[in-house]
């Protein structure tokens, strides 16, 4: 074998080894990324999950708003990427606790009783004005001592929460998407899909509650979203009773 042939053979072998090592490295990184995603969403391979959908409050018939349908598609894609299975159920058809299966629950207190139960149990510091009568506070969020009013099509808010039941390591999370309008639910699911890696690095398996602001949805749809802040502490701290609030107000004014 001449030196030229030997060099060609060695170069081919080296190229093959590099290709194999590169493939192994990419596969390792892809698998690690997938495992982190599965851990954050509580969706190991072949696990089961629930998509709990609300009803369209503007319809007299059982129906789902088109923006909520878009939200379901976003969430179904996440579940599929994790190699898990999903069951879509309506808010009045779920009669089980939480923590056994990952749950994605979207809507508002006026259209999703399941979400109302979750918020009462795990977010006692949040109130949503579900008054059907028109008024400046209709649809407003109260989180702790702050109030966030709805300006349809201009400034709208949505709560994105990842919550776990107790401290059990194996407990599956519940993801809540509580928006002032249906388009804000889609904005929150899209935000989660885009930023889940950053959220996983920051929070790991811990619970969190984020308040998002959807800006000028009448022009930009669900795409322009700003993070107002992490409101986990305020959302999980029970609000004072109305009598205590009045006494506190009177004391501050005196």
From TrEMBL:
<feature type="transmembrane region" description="Helical">
    <location>
        <begin position="6"/>
        <end position="29"/>
    </location>
</feature>
<protein>
    <recommendedName>
        <fullName>Secreted protein</fullName>
    </recommendedName>
</protein>
<keyword id="KW-0812">Transmembrane</keyword>
<keyword id="KW-0472">Membrane</keyword>
<keyword id="KW-1133">Transmembrane helix</keyword>
